[in-house]
Amino acid sequence: MTLGVIMLVHTDFQRAVQVARHWVAAQCPVVIHVDASVSRKAYRDFRAELKSEELIKFSKRHKCEWGMWGLVAASQTASELMLDSFSDVRHVFLSSGSCLPLRPIAELKAYLDARPGTDFIESATTADVPWTQGGLEAERFTLRFPFSWKKKRFLFDRYVRLQRAVKFKRRIPKGLVPHMGSQWWCLTRKTLSSILKDPDRPIYDRYFQKVWIPDESYFQSLARLYSTNIESRSLTLSKFDHQGKPHIFYDDHLQLLRRSDCFVARKIWSRADRLYKAFLTEPVQELCTSEPNPTKIDRLFAKAVERRTIGRAGLYMQSRFLDRHWENGVTASPYSVFQGFEELFEDFEPWLAKASGCRVHGHLFAKDRAEFSGRQTVINGALSDNANLRDSNPQAFLTNLIWNTRGERQCFQYSPQDLQKNNWLMAKDPNAQISVISGSWAIRLFKSNRSFSDLRSEAARLQKIEADFLKAMRSPWSKARVRIWTMAEFIEAPMEPLQTIIDEIGKHSPRRLSEAPRMTDLTGFGQFLQNLKNQGMHPYLMGDFSVTTEVNSNSKPASRPYLVR
Predict the structure, then answer these.
(1) What is the value of pTM for the model shown?
(2) CATH classification of the domain holding 352
(3) Residue 52 counted as domain residue
(4) pLDDT (tens digit, 9 = 90+) per residue, 492-538?
(5) CA-based diameter of the chain, in Å?
(6) Nearest CA among 92, 41, 81 for reference residue 58
(7) Which of the chain's ends, N or C, has fewer CB atoms near its CB within 10 Å?
(8) Using only C-alpha atoms, what is the Rg of the chain?
């Protein structure tokens, strides 16, 4: 007999009975500690279930609370009982009631027999561990923590703040270097006896009683004083999320656990019947000597943490709304935004759909409704064109649209008359391709029959809106692919920018455009801009339009740039 097992139990007693009997069946003595918070009746019933097992003993009970001294006291008491009662135990394995052996006990015993003087305990200094949570690393050893972090959080935080304010610092016992690691260890009889029988143990106990989470540092620190051969790792598979909470294993993790080659795993869901049946009752064909290798499944857990913290690109849902600056991509796939094109060109939407092979929408953020392609009222994902629904959360509307239609590039029109709440979202989105002909909004005013005084105030309002939009697009924080032309600049040679845009977004292989959209008649537009200036409004976003310069798409000289033979 070489291996003894300590079980710390506080709930799910029927599962603990199964596991304890499994250890005993392999001739491993078991000492069980039951949390003092458990009712007397539940404790008596639990003991009665195991009274026929000669290799099972129950230790003195302590009240065990997370992060407090009780867990260490429970481990000490159970360890003392184990060493006193079973003289032939060479290694002591600490486990919990939710731990489950994954490999035959004979394999674990053979593994330890081959390493009779090795202590398996994760033990690293605070400077070397990346998993500490709550902002307390070295301070957990230099401040006092008499209050429960879970039950008396207010007092805990206030007392820590007070100690920092007065610059209080505890003295670490001489010769002790604080180490941290998993509380689940497997120590040799020699090392464990040295820790429990050390003449300075009262000093160490008093010190660690006010350390935060002492079960992760007491044995980990003292083992460094006595062990001659430490392997700084635990033989128990335990995985934690980004908040320091343990992952729970369910029935669908069966193959994952088998792949790890670990001897024991925690935490196992108490109703994972398939896991308990597979590892406790199914016959073993042959013994395996492979080394425990939890790194085989580390990639899956890293992926789970990533999915939990930042989710999938462009997918926001009720269960996981992104934290600011934690976005794993603002949207799910590339899309294109066109501002000023529909005003400058007639029938721009059908031309763009034909030339690019993409789905082309109108003004998705128009005042009255979302102008989906073909003017549908509902599209993928039951996304409605209702303006009230859209405006309740414009960001979710856009990201849902891109998510629901991923695999097909979306293009839509935009203008200063549309809802502007997504400007910064699009500017910071690497998936956005934004093409702007600044000042084109004035064409609609030019063609309207409104009074000039109304046109002047409306032009001033729209110009300010577009100026703010362009400021966001040109910001150093902008990650979108942005192209901006003034209207005067664009109409001089429109084919080159149109060709560039189509080459970038088109589904077809790059090819020269054989036709261009028909440009609207701009006869008199230069004089219109001059009239705005004369009325005291300076339309600067259009570029340099001369009063005498006219652009007429029907004139022969203007038609040549739009037809490639």
Answers:
(1) 0.69
(2) 3.40.50
(3) yes
(4) 888 888 888 888 887 666 667 777 788 888 888 888 888 888 887 88
(5) 108
(6) 81
(7) C
(8) 36
Shared domain check, 228 and 116? yes
Q: In Å, what is the CA distance from 334 to each residue of 396, 428, 437?
A: 16, 13, 20
Amino acid identity of residue 536, one-letter, is G
In a domain, 544, yes or no: no
> How many other C-beta atoms are found inside a 10 Å radius of the C-beta of residue 165?
8
Is 288 contained in some domain? Answer: yes
- Distance of CA 181 to CAs 4, 137, 246, Å? 21, 12, 14
Residue type, 472: A
**CA pair distance 247, 264, nearest whole angstrom:** 14
Give yes or no: residues 276 and 379 share one domain: no
Query: In this structure, are residues 85 and 31 in contact, taking their beta carbons and an 8 Å threshold?
Result: yes
Residue 415 · residue 326 · CB < 8 Å: no
- Structural domain total, the chain: 2
Specify the amino acid at residue 144: R
The structure tokens listed for 438 are 């600044």
Residues facing 56 on adjacent strands: 30
**For the chain, percent helix, then strand, then coil, each to nearest 5?**
40, 15, 45
> In Å, what is the CA distance from 452 to each residue of 37, 41, 415, 445, 473?
82, 90, 21, 9, 31
Same domain, yes or no: 251 and 392: no
Q: Is residue 540 part of a domain?
A: no
Omega cis (within 30) before 267: yes
Predicted pLDDT at 554: 44
User: Which residues are CB-neighbours of 393 under 8 A, at least 6 positions away?
Assistant: none
User: What value does the mean pLDDT take over residues 473-478?
Assistant: 93
Domain containing residue 42? 2-138+176-309
Do 252 and 117 share a domain, yes or no? yes
HSE toward the beta carbon, residue 262, CA cutoff 13 A: 23
Query: Alpha helices of 419-486 — where are they, by DSSP H?
Result: 423-427, 442-447, 452-473
Q: Is 488 in the same domain as 430?
A: yes
